[in-house]
Amino acid sequence: MSEKAFQDHYPDDLSHCYGCGRLNDEGLQIKSRWEGDESVALFEPRPYHTAIPGYVYGGLIASLVDCHGTGTASAAAYREAGRDMGTEPPLRFVTASLHVDYLKPTPMGVTLEIRGKVEEVKGRKVVVTETVSAGGQVCARCKVVAVQMPEGMAPKD
Amino acid sequence: MSEKAFQDHYPDDLSHCYGCGRLNDEGLQIKSRWEGDESVALFEPRPYHTAIPGYVYGGLIASLVDCHGTGTASAAAYREAGRDMGTEPPLRFVTASLHVDYLKPTPMGVTLEIRGKVEEVKGRKVVVTETVSAGGQVCARCKVVAVQMPEGMAPKD
Hints:
homodimer; 6 strands
């Protein structure tokens, strides 16, 4: 997994996201990459990302799968179009819906692996299912429905 | 809304949550209260809680409804049991599943109102539906299935 992450192909004005923007110094800076047909991101929760002491905060897990989902959607749309990521015009996705099933408490102190699978690419919509694992155990299962960013949402200079 | 928030009744060892723990200095410190039969929390996103510039990060919205949902579940369980919040043993809930439909982009720069409605209290499970509004416009609809914290998850001294 040495190649550039999906999110590092986003243009500067779309790189301020708290979850995955490389230009958001306060943010989580999630990085997703292809591993065969699946997408993978690794994340080390910070000590304050706790729920009950010893376990990872569920809202953090929702944030990880949100940005890993939209990143995977973007990469899948470029792949579908036969285009290299980062080429113009950008194919940037936002989340239409997010579902997370928390299967078991996620332990702190281990690197989390977020793994995505593209279920559907149809028009402006991409459906991604994901797992979040800690030490090889799946702790959460998720589904993100991502849609291409509406024109009206583009940042204004 | 001057009375003590749901989360301020949690015992100290359950008050470290990144979303709503009063003892987590880095966290969001979400505060929820009853307003009649509905629960309400207000939250002002910080400038870095951005998605696309000008709009609120969806993972933050998921975090807000997560903790507002479990807080509402706890308050509903105490109410159902005819007990005052904060009395022992604590009725603390965790999230079994979370669903968010993002209806429209949520603008930055306004206070968000998270409003919860208890749909079901059954055994150890409470179902809460929620809306997240900005300037009176509903931007997201959510459903949280909360379950009473498993014994094995309790913090160890």
